[in-house]
Amino acid sequence: AGGAVLAGFTGTPILCEPHEGRQLLDIIKGQHATAGDAGFVSSFHRRPPSMFPQTLPSGIPDAVLTPSLRRRFIRKVPLAGEALQRYDKKRAAGLPPPRLRRYCNLCVHFGSMHDGKSGCKERVLEDFEACAPKLHAIASEVAASPVKALVLVARSSGMAALIAFLRRLAEAGGGPARFGVATMDEIAAFNSPENLRGERYRVLVADSAQCSEGV
């Protein structure tokens, strides 16, 4: 359209190959842009703390997550009871690693988290710490903290179970302790100025297979 101004904002102008940045810039400039790129690109050469989320725990550098760096802030939650028994059973059966990892989070298949016939949703939620110790640890920290949080967990690794348990905790809190649990359906409300401090939604739970830092 003539007389229009098109602006693009991205944190990842290059996904894989350097020429992708050129392609993106050419799309933004259009067919009748003046020669040269001067005035078409503005970027942050530094990251002002006031414009980016705070990195926690304190002292963790904003850098590539190397194995050494991960060891500094990963919290280990041991499996026990039913969760450990189910994991060992699946490992002994030769389950491939990608599928086996799902049982690190939840002692049942994620597809059985429903209220219908053969479902086990209520049983899992009633004994969540034993059935999903890692997810229980995450939910407990979210419930205990007054600040907004983002939790990325794969749908196949217990996302629905975590959402259901968080909502149960939120309802049980009542009063000032009560908090809202959002999914990607409520991302606009979660990120809105009216929810700056988590007034409506304190935590957003999203599928790690579909979402990343852009959330």
Model description:
Helices cover 37% and strands 5% of the residues. The protein is built from ten helices and three strands; from the N terminus they run ααααααααβαβαβ. A three-stranded parallel beta sheet has the order 1-3-2, with helices on one face. The protein starts with 18 loop residues before the first helix and ends in a 9-residue tail after the last strand.
Strand content: under 5%
Mind telling me the C-alpha Rg?
Answer: 22 Å
Helix content: 25-40%
Overall, the morphology is elongated
Looking across the biggest beta sheet, what order are the strands in?
A: 1-3-2
Task: State mean pLDDT (0 to 100 scale).
Answer: 86
Query: Would you count the extended β strands for me?
Result: 3
Tally of alpha and pi helices: 10
| Sheet having the most strands | 3 strands, parallel
In terms of structural class, how would the helical and strand content be classed?
A: mainly alpha
Query: Stretches where pLDDT falls below 50 for ≥5 residues?
Result: none
First-last Cα distance? 30 Å
Order of helices and strands: HHHHHHHHEHEHE
In short:
The chain is mainly α. The protein contains 10 helices and 3 strands. Strand 2, helix 10 (187-191) and strand 3 form a beta-alpha-beta unit.
